[in-house]
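Students often ask why inverse folding is considered easier than folding. One informal answer: many sequences map to the same fold, so there is more than one right answer. In these notes we will look at a single instance of the problem. The structure comes first.
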């Protein structure tokens, strides 16, 4: 999983990014329908946390099988991996955070999900006409994207690097306007907000579509919010 997937520019349609889904795929589909998403030419980029909390988590494998969906691994996918691979995990916290659907599955079914989650990259780099756009779940651990790219080419990944990529809320908590060099924009989720927030060149797009908010779709070619 310690990989960065590099994706060529879309010359046929739109590349849209969406914030955390958390098992609300029907709501997401309604949002895509409302903006005329065309799976024949458009692509959807997920900033992770496709599962937990919502009622349709078991649909995640079907969504990940779609050729037009590109995802990064969020901390909730990471929790499932940690549980199955025998890493220490506070199971009470995991259940409270919405992981009960996964914990209650038979072991062989858990493994099926985890084997797919492990193939989701930690980071995505998308080429656009105006420069590269990066996607992570939470934040970049370095001031320069190119350093993260180098780290993800190494045979092993420092736990702290993965932790920042999937768990950090520091940038939002401190209103840190520092740019991430080497990118036109970095797009992240993880921290639910009432509206999209841009700090430096980092776009926070989890607007609580899985809860009482709405799903934000961001056009990665233009960096414009696509309103349903």
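Output (designed amino acids):
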């Amino acid at each position: 999983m310690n990989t960065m997937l590099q994706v060529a520019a879309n010359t046929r349609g739109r590349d849209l990014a969406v914030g955390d889904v958390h098992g609300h795929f029907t709501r997401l589909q309604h949002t895509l329908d409302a903006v005329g998403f065309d799976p024949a030419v458009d692509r959807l980029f997920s900033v992770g946390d496709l599962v937990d909390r919502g009622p349709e988590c078991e649909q995640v494998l079907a969504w990940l099988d779609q050729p037009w969906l590109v995802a990064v691994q969020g901390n909730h996918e990471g929790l499932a991996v940690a549980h199955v691979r025998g890493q220490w995990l506070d199971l009470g916290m995991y259940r409270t955070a919405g992981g009960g659907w996964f914990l209650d599955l038979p072991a062989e079914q858990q493994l099926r999900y985890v084997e797919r989650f492990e193939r989701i990259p930690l980071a995505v780099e998308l080429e656009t006409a105006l420069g590269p756009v990066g996607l992570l779940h939470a934040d970049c651990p370095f001031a320069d994207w190119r350093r993260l790219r180098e780290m993800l080419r190494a045979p092993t990944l420092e736990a702290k690097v993965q932790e920042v990529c999937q768990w950090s809320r520091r940038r939002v908590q401190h209103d840190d306007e520092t740019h991430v060099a080497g990118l036109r924009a970095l797009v992240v989720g993880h921290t639910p907000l009432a509206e999209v927030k841009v700090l430096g060149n980092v776009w926070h797009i989890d607007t609580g579509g899985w809860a009482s908010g709405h799903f934000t779709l961001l056009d990665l070619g233009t960096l414009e919010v696509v309103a349903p």
